[in-house]
Design goal:
Elements (H helix, E strand, L loop, with lengths): L1 E4 L6 E3 L4 E4 L6 E7 L4 E6 L16 E8 L4 H11 L8 E7 L8 E4 L5 E3 L5 E3 L3
């Protein structure tokens, strides 16, 4: 099933095979986190302000997280750092992708049957090293 999230929507619980899609990203980002328990949550974080994220995203059993933003900026990189360094999610592997061009696509993240998270159209993004 494909879910469409706006920045006004609460965190969405996803299941294997589900896809989450968001409106084009300007200063916002899509954050999807997979947990050891099998839970996967997604939220479109308005303004990339992590204080807007539901507490569900900060659980110690987090395994993997994907953060997708528009073009890379110092502000976005700082938000990725803040997310990764949160004491309750530190052990998770964070993949931060930034879009390569000015016209932002609608990013889609899929929950694979293995529980792994994948970014659709990954060639349109680059993995940010920070």
């Amino acid at each position: 099933m494909r879910f469409f999230l706006s920045e006004r929507d609460p965190a969405q619980l996803l299941h294997y095979g589900d896809e989450v899609q968001v409106t084009p990203l300007n200063s916002c980002c899509l954050i999807v986190v997979a947990y050891d328990s099998g839970d996967v949550y997604a939220q479109h974080c308005a303004g990339s302000d992590l204080s807007n994220l539901n507490n569900l995203f900060f659980r110690s059993d987090a395994l993997e997280a994907i953060m997708v933003s528009g073009p890379e900026s110092e502000y976005q990189v700082n938000q990725a750092h803040q997310f990764q360094l949160h004491p309750r999610i530190r052990s998770a592997v964070l993949h931060y992708y930034a879009y390569n061009w000015e016209n932002y696509p609608m990013p889609v993240v899929k929950v694979e049957s293995t529980g792994k998270l994948t970014l659709e159209s990954e060639k349109s993004y680059h993995l940010v090293c920070y």
